[in-house]
Design goal:
By secondary structure, this protein is of the alpha/beta class. The protein is built from ten helices and 13 strands. The strands form four sheets. A seven-stranded mixed beta sheet has the order 2-1-3-4-7-13-10, with helices on both faces.
Length: 310
């Protein structure tokens, strides 16, 4: 296994990224609502090619906002399998399906093979070897795993993207947050180590341009052409020259802590998808990124992809 690159420690409070003490890649599960957008695919591939990560699972998430079973998770599952197949990883990276609906309340999990994988891999680590679970969509699978087996709380770090944080204040999210607000509440109300990437005010700065996608990826075959095809065929990006790559911002921040600015703050009190109460003195502390170096992330993304292609 390729040894972990030395990563800068930009804060003694920043705990989610491997430090210079780590000799092995960080154990990671990526959980994504892959079929909902195009940025999930790019972020997943970035994680899979990172020598700093040992991806122990790629799990699928829904985007329904419904407590009734629905097909959205299976759409994500199909694209996850496409990605792994194009990369020759279908037999080596576990890829169980996730919850097919959102949680009915903050105390009732939705059991799924994805939640069970998170539990199993959480228990597989030794002291000081927490599993990092990165949610790029609704965090149903993460919260459900925690509720199904509370003993994993000390064995995982959860990272999630959406709900806003600006000028020292929390705000509601745009999409992932609303797709299962009960799962968000369950995580904030737990004691699990938690890392948050705001969408509306922070990760919105991370963009890629179609011309650079073509320059780096088009005609390269395999998963590289899949990324191009997704941009060109997905209705909301077909014909667009630029695209906000929300999810890449979170993956890059975890891989390259020098490209993001984290702060440890009190968790908010979440009443519902639109109502967030500020609680700066809350003893429940969480890490939130208050800024990113979007240009640095863009350069690092393409350097890593080119290295993987070579």
């Amino acid at each position: 296994m390729v040894r972990c690159r030395v990563l800068a420690i930009i804060s003694s409070l920043w705990f989610a990224v491997p430090s210079t003490l780590g000799d092995e890649p960080r154990r990671v599960i990526i959980d994504a609502d892959t079929a909902n957008e195009i940025d999930d695919l790019y972020a997943i591939v970035r994680a899979l090619v990172a020598p700093e990560f040992e991806v122990e699972g790629l799990t699928s998430a829904h985007w329904s906002r419904s407590t009734e079973p629905n097909d959205t998770v299976h759409q994500s599952q199909a694209i996850n399998e496409q990605i792994l197949g194009r990369m020759g990883l279908l037999d080596s990276v576990p890829h169980p399906v996730g919850a097919d609906r959102s949680m009915p309340d903050s105390e009732t999990p939705v059991d799924s093979p994805a939640a069970r994988l998170i539990i199993a891999r959480a228990h597989a680590g030794g002291p000081g070897d927490k599993l990092l679970v990165v949610a790029l969509g609704a965090c149903t699978n993460l919260a459900s795993a925690l509720l199904l087996d509370p003993s994993i709380e000390e064995k995982v770090v959860f990272a999630f993207i959406d709900g806003d944080y600006k000028d020292g204040k929390w705000g509601p999210g745009i999409f992932n947050w609303k797709n299962d607000i009960h799962a968000v509440r369950a995580i904030f109300e737990s004691g699990v180590e938690y890392v948050h990437m705001p969408a509306r005010s922070v990760s919105v700065e991370m963009e890629l341009a179609k011309n650079e996608v073509d320059e780096h990826l088009k005609g390269r075959g395999g998963v590289w052409d899949l990324l191009v095809e997704r941009w060109e065929t997905y209705p909301r990006t077909a014909g667009r020259e630029k695209k906000t790559m929300w999810d890449i911002a979170l993956v890059e921040a975890l891989l390259r802590p020098d490209l993001a600015t984290p702060v440890v703050v009190g968790a908010p009190i979440i009443h519902d998808a639109e109502t967030v109460e500020q609680h700066p003195e809350n003893p429940r502390r969480v890490t939130v990124f208050q800024a990113i170096d979007a240009e640095g992330m863009r350069r690092d993304f393409w350097e890593a992809i080119e290295a993987a292609i070579r």
